[in-house]
Automatic annotation (TrEMBL):
The lineage of its organism: Bacteria, Pseudomonadati, Pseudomonadota, Betaproteobacteria, Burkholderiales. Disulfide bonds join C49-C54. This is Dihydrolipoyl dehydrogenase. It comes from Rubrivivax albus. The gene is lpdA. Residues 353-462 form the Pyridine nucleotide-disulphide oxidoreductase dimerisation domain. PANTHER family: DIHYDROLIPOYL DEHYDROGENASE (PTHR22912:SF224), DISULFIDE OXIDOREDUCTASE (PTHR22912).
Length: 472
């Protein structure tokens, strides 16, 4: 006999496991299905984010940052290091431990919140409104409501599949067993820059090939220029406006034929090649045809603004639907859907979703960029403050970058905040809160910020909107 649930969630990534927990908190009998496996074949909930994305990449970024500090910067603090060595296997092992802690944490949260977990692939087998059937293994579950949260997969270059040995996705890039002498990156996006930063810090010679003529086109142009300057200074070789041609793998490595922005033919010889050209919605094995679930031309599930699909009682969230492929966006959608199912009024403001690139310097932003405001013809004021003039940044020894505020020219409402520099990922939260309450730049400028702190740069940038910074 089929097990009956109020809500079945397919996928236990950030959108799925959060949706399941919130639904259970609201008194709904909830099941969550996930197919990720750990090294021993056991369950590994958390999706791409926990297993081969956000969490492991940050673990390696932290390890590689420690190594670079010891190798290049400890001397500035009067700390001498002799016989510095690198154990890549141990570094990867620590990363794996961090991932497992997060996997186990999600399983604990399921148990705590009385979510029934099923390990396997969830596939639609049919049903009608209020009675959808989802198969997992030999079992068929019946749910009144189903939330699809199956995430996304790395996009491969046409004709160049990932072998995770020489040609790597984000998965393989997190499992490189030794520092490659030469590393190639196709795509200067978030994943590419973060992985490039890890292996560059550990000693690899890294070359980035980007098809677009501009660097980080989604980022505010002034911030992107500052970031590019910092990355080049660190040793990243960044080529823009390139056309990638034939890619050949051999026992020695990978050969990439490419043409630069001037139309000149080039060849890049590397030991490993990371391909980071975006991600595609993951619906493999879902069998959406069984319930008439409509997909768009990218393979994403079509949903409305509230994450309702074309089929009554079936919802979808996260990377498998429209919008930015960000873990925290998926989480917010997951909570909102669970609350809507329970008769509440879930809400997600897509204009206030922060973006972060965890390189060094970090890049973070929320709201509109200067180029977007210009394109819209909106009158605005801008204010910037460099970390070079911040006392805490000087003490840290990391003064790269700035904070930038954009505010409406008449009302002074904050329209966008953009940061490149130390701890940008943490500093951006203040901007999110301020913008959620439609604060003005003057509001931030009038709030007392602790001294010395990096957050003082946020206050100073807000002051700069009115051309009255105090420390620059």
């Amino acid at each position: 006999m089929s097990q009956q649930f109020d809500v079945i969630v397919i996928g236990a990534g950030p959108g799925g496991y959060i949706a399941a927990i919130r639904a259970a908190q609201l008194g709904l009998k909830t099941a969550c299905i996930d197919e990720w496996k750990n090294a021993t074949g056991g369950p590994a909930p958390g999706g791409t984010c926990t297993n081969v994305g956000c969490i492991p990449s940050k673990a390696l970024l932290q390890s590689s940052e420690h190594y670079e500090h010891a190798a290049k910067h400890f001397g500035d603090h009067g700390i001498g290091v002799k016989g510095l060595s690198l154990d890549v296997a141990k570094m990867i092992g620590r990363k794996d431990d961090v991932v497992k802690q997060n996997n186990d944490g999600i399983l604990y949260l399921f148990k705590k919140n009385k979510v029934t977990f099923f390990h396997g692939t969830g596939s639609f087998v049919g049903g009608t409104a209020d009675a959808w059937q989802v198969q997992v293994g030999e079992q068929v579950l019946t749910g009144k409501q189903v939330v699809v949260a199956t995430g996304s997969s790395a996009r491969a270059l046409p004709g160049v599949p990932f072998d995770e040995d020489k040609v790597l996705s984000n998965d393989g890039a997190l499992r490189i067993g030794a520092v490659p002498k030469k590393l190639g990156l196709i795509g200067a996006g978030v994943i590419g820059l973060e992985m490039g930063s890890v292996w560059r810090r550990l000693g690899a010679e890294v070359t980035v090939l980007e098809g677009l003529p501009t660097f980080l086109g989604a980022v505010d142009e002034q911030i992107a220029r500052e970031a590019q300057k910092a990355f080049v200074k660190q040793g990243l070789k960044i080529e823009l406006g390139v056309k990638v041609g034939e890619i050949k793998t051999s026992r020695k490595g990978v050969s990439v034929a490419w043409t630069n922005a001037k139309g000149e033919a080039q060849t890049l010889e590397v030991d490993k090649l990371i391909v980071s050209i975006g991600r595609v919605p993951n619906t493999a094995g879902l069998n959406p045809e069984a319930v008439g679930l409509k997909l768009d031309e990218r393979g994403a599930i079509l949903v409305d603004a509230d994450c309702r699909s074309s089929v009554p009682g079936i919802w979808a969230v996260g990377d498998v639907v429209r919008g930015p492929m960000l873990a925290h966006k998926a989480e917010e959608e997951g909570v909102a859907v669970a609350e809507r199912i329970a008769g509440q009024h879930g809400h997600v403001d897509f204009n206030l979703i922060p973006w972060v690139i965890y390189t060094s310097p970090e890049i973070a932003w929320v709201g509109q960029t200067e180029q977007q405001l210009k394109a819209a013809g909106r009158a605005y004021k801008a204010g910037t403050f460099p970390f070079l003039a911040n006392g805490r940044a000087r003490a840290l020894g990391d003064t790269t970058g700035m904070v930038k505020f954009l505010a409406d020219a008449k009302t002074d409402e904050i329209l966008g905040v953009h940061i490149v520099g130390p701890m940008a990922s943490e500093l951006i939260a203040e901007a999110c809160v301020a913008m959620a309450f439609r604060a003005s730049a003057e509001d931030i400028a009038r709030i007392c910020h602790a001294h010395p702190s990096l957050s003082e740069s946020t206050k100073e940038a807000a002051l700069a909107v009115d051309k009255r910074t105090l420390n620059f």
